[in-house]
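FIELD: query
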Amino acid sequence: MASENVVQAVSQYLFAEPGATVFAIVDGASALGLLASLYRYQPDYVCLYRGELQPDMAEVAPYLVRLEPTAEYTAWVIEHGWGNHWGIFAVSHADMREMRQHFRRFLIVHDSSGKPLLFRYYDPRVLRVYLPTCNAEELATVFGPVTYYILEENDQGNALRFSIESGSLQQERLRLT
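FIELD: result
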């Protein structure tokens, strides 16, 4: 569980962009009790998987959640998820519908033989390794309407902010403590 200082610092970085909306993609497979928390706090959220899911699949699916600066759910997801690879944060000027469409495009990728694979890009351990390998075209695709991503680093006392500038990936380490 993240300390109150870490929760405050992460929140400050997330809500620093004037007029932007903050989204979390939270992984039900990592965040035990995610659905219960969504029902309890009732943030604006949508499953990234299409259609009606069986209960066991709904429990482990990834969810796109719009975060509000002072909402209880925002504090809850940072406090319990930070350092536990529950998901990633994206800051954008797009709406929920556009963000869902954007993030759904990356759920399935194909290997060199054409076999479909689930791409768990919403795991911060995956995204922080994947982004630096992308070329300019791939970065433009992955970022789309996203202004920047914030995700946990191996060290819980730091966050990483990824953005694009002139087609190049920018990575910044943010101190949380």
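FIELD: remark
Residues 45 and 138 are 27 Å apart (CA to CA).
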